Amino acid sequence: MLVKIYPDNPNPREIQKVVDVLKAGGLVIYPTDTIYGLGCDINNSKAVEKIALIKGLNLKKDHLSFICHDMSHLSVYSKSLENHVFKLLKKHLPGPFTFILPANTNVPKLFKNNKKTIGFRIPDNPIILEIVRELGNPILNTSIRDDDEIIEYTTDPELIHEKYENLVDLVIDGGYGDNEASTIVDCTQYPFEIIRQGKGDLEL
Questions:
Q1: What is the span of the domain harbouring residue 189?
Q2: Contact at 8 Å (CB) between 171 and 160?
Q3: Which distant-in-sequence residues (6+ apart) come within 8 Å of 130 by Cβ?
Q4: How many structural domains compose the chain?
Q5: pLDDT digits (tens, 9 = 90+) for 22-66
Q6: What positions does the domain YrdC-like occupy (predicted)?
Q7: How far is it, in rounded angstroms, from Cα 143 to Cα 138?
Q8: Predicted TM-score (pTM) of this structure
């Protein structure tokens, strides 16, 4: 299913349609402020395992990230933030960053990797933020990669739909995506470490 949602004014009915799919354990492809993402409800272990299978992920070893809708939502799933970490996040979110933080006990057991950390994203995109807000909890976020090493990321939602329609339950057409991933910042140590330089420029 391909659903058109306009980022400047997301239709509540269409948003609810996506939320219903997520609540039923479905997989959804959605726009962010960087590349298109593939996600599911973090509380649905079967859906999470399906994504791990599609992406070849090891849930105990690979770095995984959640999309939250704002800072207070993020703080429900991370250990209490030190002041300098809080200031950094406040300055850069919503935005094209993934911040690695210590996970707390609200993070489902399925995601408890050896380091007990989770990447957190609050993308500057009203479509996905509204979906997560309506859902009431974060979604697991992974990127849609392209088989073509030169292109790396597919930006056209119709082409994404063609490729993934048999693997996922719903693809959102929120306009063309970017072809540059988020900047990943490890905040579990100080000074902070940039694990991957992407679209976001970190200002300290």
A1: 2-196
A2: yes
A3: 10, 15, 69
A4: 1
A5: 999 999 999 999 999 999 999 999 999 999 999 998 888 888 899
A6: 12-200
A7: 16
A8: 0.95
